[in-house]
């Protein structure tokens, strides 16, 4: 084997390139997959004059205290999640995505206010009365 052939064989063994018909082709690693940007958090309006979407913070706090003890991470084995014990279908209907118990508390407040503005206290038959 010639010196050039030995050099090419050593280069190939080290994984630094490939040989094609007596030519050296440099090794080019596969491009790395770019990390996907995190989805943006929705813009949640801040309470205005003690209310969100026209629903008083006192009303929301009363419902939350009754539903979950005010715990935004609360999970009920029956399939209700978060501070206001949303089911996933209702959460999605007011624009939420994912698990309500993993959403920021301000988003839970906002989505509960939207639901209350649309349906009154009926989504919370015990705690909204």
Written account of the structure:
This protein is of the alpha+beta class and 129 residues long. The chain has two domains: 1-28, no CATH class; 51-119, Lysozyme (Orthogonal Bundle). It contains four helices and six strands. It has helices at residues 3-13, 57-68, 88-93, 105-119, and strands at residues 17-20, 23-26, 51-52, 55-56, 75-76, 80-81. The protein is elongated and about 85 Å long. The N and C termini lie far apart (91 Å).
**How many structural units, i.e. domains?**
2
- Write down the overall geometry: elongated
CATH architectural grouping of the largest domain: Orthogonal Bundle
How far the N terminus sits from the C terminus, by CA atoms, comes to: 91 Å
CATH class of the largest domain: Mainly Alpha
For the biggest sheet, the summary is: 2 strands, antiparallel
How many β-strand runs?
Answer: 6
**Which consecutive residue ranges, at least 5 long each, have pLDDT under 50?**
5-13
Quick check: average pLDDT? 83
> For the CA atoms, what is the radius of gyration?
29 Å
Helix and strand run: HEEEEHEEHH
Largest sheet: spatial strand order: 1-2
Strand proportion: 5-15%
Secondary structure: helix percent: 25-40%
- Count of individual helical segments: 4
Q: According to CATH, what is the topology of the largest domain?
A: Lysozyme
Main structural class? alpha+beta
């Amino acid at each position: 084997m010639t010196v050039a052939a030995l050099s090419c064989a050593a280069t190939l063994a080290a994984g630094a390139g490939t040989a094609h018909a007596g030519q050296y082709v440099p090794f080019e690693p596969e491009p790395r997959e770019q990390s996907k940007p995190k989805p943006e958090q929705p813009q949640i309006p801040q309470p205005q004059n003690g209310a969100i979407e026209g629903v008083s913070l006192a009303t929301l706090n009363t419902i939350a205290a009754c539903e979950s003890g005010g715990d935004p991470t609360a999970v009920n084995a029956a399939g209700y999640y978060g501070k206001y014990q949303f089911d996933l279908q209702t959460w999605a209907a007011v624009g939420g995505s994912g698990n309500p118990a993993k959403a920021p508390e301000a988003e839970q407040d906002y989505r509960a206010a939207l639901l209350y503005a649309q349906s009154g206290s009926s989504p919370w038959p015990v705690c909204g009365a």
